[in-house]
Amino acid sequence: MGALRRITQLILIIVTVAGNKMEESVNVFGEPLEICGGNPVTGFYRDGKCNTCEQDTGSHTVCIEASKEFLEYSRFKGNDLSTPRPEFGFKGVNVGDSWCLCAARWKEAIADDRAPRVYLQRTHIKALEIVPMELLKPYALDLS
Question: Among 3, 83, 120, 141, which one has the highest count of C-beta atoms within 10 angstroms of its own C-beta?
Fold first, then answer.
């Protein structure tokens, strides 16, 4: 039964995103978007990148490195990312994992002093429509 449920969920994801035109896969520097995370697989398209489209109303475009503080904050805000959900094939996000986060949630977390660090080369350019680069840069893990 578990395998059938997982297959059904994958088909639903494929059908949901198949008709959606993906935005160009570009990061905040206008360069090719790098992979954010594959374990667990992240992104609106579950392709490991923070790609997005018009139907991605949450704008899952900011690639973060999960911290204990942020995971607790997210759970408190009603989005428990750390609890495994095997029925959905989701092992949960752990401290140190990379994850495509909703841009508005990251902006909210910065206002509440709980924002996790970010990977700018893995963050989609569409994130800049919600979060200014000036806010992202101090949290960047990949700037020299």
Answer: 120
134 Cβ contact partners less than 8 Å away, ≥ 6 residues apart: none
* pTM of structure: 0.85
Question: Residue 3 has which token pair?
Answer: 């395998």
Q: How far apart are CA 99 and CA 41, in angstroms?
A: 8
Tokens read off for 128 = 């800049």
Q: Is 18 helix (H, G, I), strand (E, B) or coil?
A: helix
Look at residues 87, 64, 65, 66 and name the one whose alpha carbon lies nearest to residue 75: 66
Give the contacts of 115 (CB within 8 A, at least 6 positions apart).
Answer: 70, 106, 109, 139
- pLDDT tens, residue by residue, 3-28: 555 555 555 455 454 566 899 999 99
Structural domains of the chain, with CATH:
2-139 (3.30.56.110)
DSSP H or E stretch at residue 135: helix 133-136
